[in-house]
Amino acid sequence: MKAWYTGDPVYDTILAGALALIPLTVAGLFFMETPYGRFGGKGKGLHVSPRLGWFLMELPAPLTFLFFYFRGGHPYAPISLAFLGLWCLHYAYRTFTFPALMRVAPGYRSTFSFFVVASGWLVTPMHGYLSASFVSGLGRHLDASWFTDARFLAGLFVYLVGFGIILHSDSVLRQLRPKDPSKAAGLPRYQTPRGGLFRFVTNAQFLGELTAWTGFALATWSLPGVFILGISAANLIPRALANHRWYRSAFPDYPRERKVLIPFVF
Ligand code: NDP
Which residue ranges make up each domain of the chain? Predict the structure, then answer.
C-alpha cells in the first residue's frame, strides 16, 4: 500500500474513527469487566439471554458486509469472491451457529447486558462496511496476482488455523454442559475446560479469535484488517486476564501451569 488512505473521503474518515476507537476501548475496559457470561446479569439495565445477545450483537457485521460488498467496484472478481467466502464462513458460524448451539445454564437466562449489544453495534457495522468496501473495490492491490502473494497465502493459512481453534475451543466449552437442559439441574454452572489448547491456556477461544483476525489482516494487508484485530485484542486481552483470575479463584485445583492466552508465554 502506498498510503494509509484509499482516497474515498467517507471511507477514510470512518476508518480513522474506527482506528481511534481502539485506544478508547483499551481505556474503557481498563475500568470495567464486560457484563456478559460469568461477569453478567448483576447490575441494573436491560439483560437478554446469551443466545439473543450474541445474535443481535453480531448480526450487523454480515448484513453491512453484504450490503456494501455488492456496491464495490469489482464484487465478482475472484479475489473479492474469496474474501466474501471467508466472511460468509466466519459470520455464518459466529452470528447463527454459535448462538444456536449455545447451552444456557438453567436459571441464567438473562446474563447478557444490552449495554454489550449496543457497544458491539458501534463496532460490527463499521467492521462490515470497512472490510466489504475494501475487498470489493477500494483495496487497489487486491487483483488476481494477490492469490499467489505470500501475504495472502500465509494470511489465509493463519486465518484457517485460528478458525479451527475457535470451533474446537467453543465446542469444548459447550460440552461442559449436557445437551438436554433437564439433565443440567443440580450440576455446577461452570467447570474447568480441558483438552485442545485449554491444556496450555485459560482462553483458548480468544487465542483462536486473535489468530484468525491476524490471518485476515495479513491476507487483506489492510487497515480494516488491523482495525478488527486491534479492537478484538482491546476487548479480549482484559477479558482473558479477568477470566484467568476468576478460574484460579473459583477452582482451587485449577492447573497452575496454564497461561492466560499465549502458550508458555502469557
Ligand atoms: P461466553 O462467555 O458467552 O461463553 C460461551 C458459552 O460457554 C456460554 O454459554 C458460557 O456460559 C459457556 N461457558 C463458558 N465458560 C464455561 C465453563 N467454564 N463451563 C461451562 N460453560 C462455560 O463467550 P466467550 O467470551 O467465550 O466468547 C465466545 C466467542 O466469541 C469466543 O470464540 C470469543 O473468541 C469470541 N469473542 C470475540 C470478541 C471479539 O472482539 N472479536 C469479543 C468476545 C468474544 P455462561 O453464559 O453461563 O457464562
Answer: 9-178+190-250
